[in-house]
Design a protein that fits this description.
The chain contains 9 helices and 16 strands. The chain is of the alpha+beta class. InterPro entries: GATase_2_dom, Ntn_hydrolases_N.
Amino acid sequence: MLRSPLADHPGLASEAFVALGTLAEERGTDSAGVALLSGRPVVRDTRLPAGRADARRSDMRHAACRVVKGRGRFSEIWRDDLRPHVDASPVVLGHTRWATQGSPFDLVNASPLVVPGGDGPGIVATHNGDVEAGALRERFALPPATGTTDSERVFQLLAGCRRPADVTQVLGTLVGRAALAWVDRARPDRVHLARAALSPLAIAMDAEQNLYWASNPRWYREVARETGVRFTSVVMLREGTYLQVGLAPTRKRPVPRVLGRAAFQPTARGWDTDPRVWTGFTTQDMERDRLLLRHRVVAEQEAVAC
């Protein structure tokens, strides 16, 4: 969620965020997490994070960012004492994980991930999907990883991007399924959203101009019934779309808007087109999305080599 400074009822948006996290359990229950960003830019963060962690739960404080995550369902890691912090956070990232690469029992593989960025402070990021991480390691000189997920490899590359052209170049190299959301800690007033091949990503805005992103458009309809939040628009992002969203000036105060858009060619493997991509979708939503797919498909040998 990217919060609008114009919102009169910040608690409603927080309620919608928690409801979306609970609904997202249908797409993953191996682990879950929440990243709370204060909106303060970080020039470079070389300190070790402070907080507490064990084998199942962690609550770590990085500069201007707090990340709470754990093994199991979103509803199991969510705590009511986090609610005031969500209310006060300009940007909040949530994630539920279905492990495809990397052990589901190792908490370092759970998202949101805090990934260093070379000379910069790095990014806070989430990824739904499964891509060829080995191909990325062979093609790019990547630093040692802290975990064993494909997600971390993707975000190591994106953490070094400074221009939209750099971002789309990285996104164009991905082979597999990917929907991504990340925040550059040097520019925490902007959120980067991208849909590569297949993995769905739906963007919504409510009547108070808070901006949300989630995997399933149906969830917004359910959240509206459960919370009273009224969504004024819900749009499925097309494959091969990269967006920068942030606060744009108006005559009153800044409000969330799309600040930049770029396209790239998404690439999938033959086995990626599986009905499980649309887990939890209504038949109508799934058919509507499938009509707009535009990825290219590579053979197994090419997927591994590219």
